[in-house]
Amino acid sequence: MQQPVVSYSMPAEEIESVSLPVGWKSYISPEGRKYYVNTSTKETTWERPSTSTTSPKASGSHQHSVNGRQLHGASGHVLEHPDVYLRKTSLSNQSPGSTSPARRQNKEKEIKETKITINCVTFPVSMSAPEQQLLKPSEWSYCDYFWADKRDPQGATVSGFEVLLQKQLKGKQMQKEMAEFIRERIKIEEEYAKNLSKLSMFPMAAQEEGTLGEAWAQLKKSLADEAEVHLKFSSKLQSEVEKPLLTFRGDNFKKDMKKYDHHIADLRKQLVSRYAAVEKARKALADRQKDLEVKTQQLEIKLSNKTEEDIKKARRKSTQAGDDLMRCVDLYNQGQSKWFEEMVTTSLELERLEVERVETIQQLLRQYTTLRHETDMFNQSTMEPVDQLLQSVDPAKDRELWVKEHKTGDLRPVDMDI
Fold first, then answer.
1. What's the CA gap between 168 and 253, in Å, rounded?
2. Environment class of residue 229 by beta-carbon count within 10 Å: exposed (0-12), middle (13-18) or buried (19+)?
3. Dihedrals φ, ψ of 403, to 5°?
4. Which residues form the WW domain (predicted)?
5. Which of 32, 121, 131, 205 is the most buried (most CB within 10 A)?
6. Which of 322, 296, 288 is nearest to 45 (CA)?
7. What's the burial of 86, exposed, middle or buried (CB within 10 Å: 0-12/13-18/19+)?
């Protein structure tokens, strides 16, 4: 929604000021017509005032304000001297209704070339506006890149803030899936430990003897020790990784996201409503100005004796319509400013939450790798006795032990005598 920049008819050189009544000056409109302005009351007229015309008392004028800006003029309307235009760089507090149609159309065309309204939000046209400075340069911050709306794969309009919220909800879902993954890892560890323990009690090769038998028995025992290591690993995974993943940002997190969503959505709805009011006021102003033009043309060809009075009424209505448009634009800009401020504040909060989420999960995954390294270390320790006994395996020693236990006699057979 572009800020209306409106102006009076382009002032021409003053003429005949000496012969006019006190307080009156004459100007030339863009169409080449002469009109007269009372510098005290700001009254304007197409007809030359007579020398008997006296200036109305100053008490006939009063003041009113819009958003803190004082507006002066008869009947409370802005009717500034036309040459004020030359001294102003901005005429946002001047009633559009007092602007000549040609000048107003030129200004509106100029505005449309520099600003564009998309889904009730006003943006500068990048081709004609200087490049905006990012709020947080070089940081790729949320508060700099999510002002416009976009289309989802189904063609529905999604606001930039909704994209940020979806990122948060997706992060919550990823966190949940990571916890489920760790749960499956725990189940595997528990099942593995159970099977190792069960296997260690199998009586297979229990009759192996000697140093090899001792090494074999130790190997079977190491399975039970390894099973214990994996049980401890699964237990620590549950308490130090899975549970923190599940409890980080509990049920209140989604409620908080909904609060953010509703708050920003309400501000956006208000902005849409105020933009509609601006468009309605703009149309009303166009209708009033068109009516004023018609009555002015009727005066030129003198179709009615009442036309001059009708023009005065039409001019007042046009000025009032301009004031109404100013008021609607001010309300719109206030609403957009409030939405802007809340967008910056909330997007930065969502950015902080995302950093917190990533760092928390990073820490938990590091804990996983630490536990995994510890498990490998403990598993290695269960193998050390096995390694030592395997190094001590001696076939000769085993044969000696076995022979001593199972020998049947050391006398060898000899030849038979005749």
1. 10
2. buried
3. -65, -45
4. 18-51
5. 121
6. 296
7. exposed
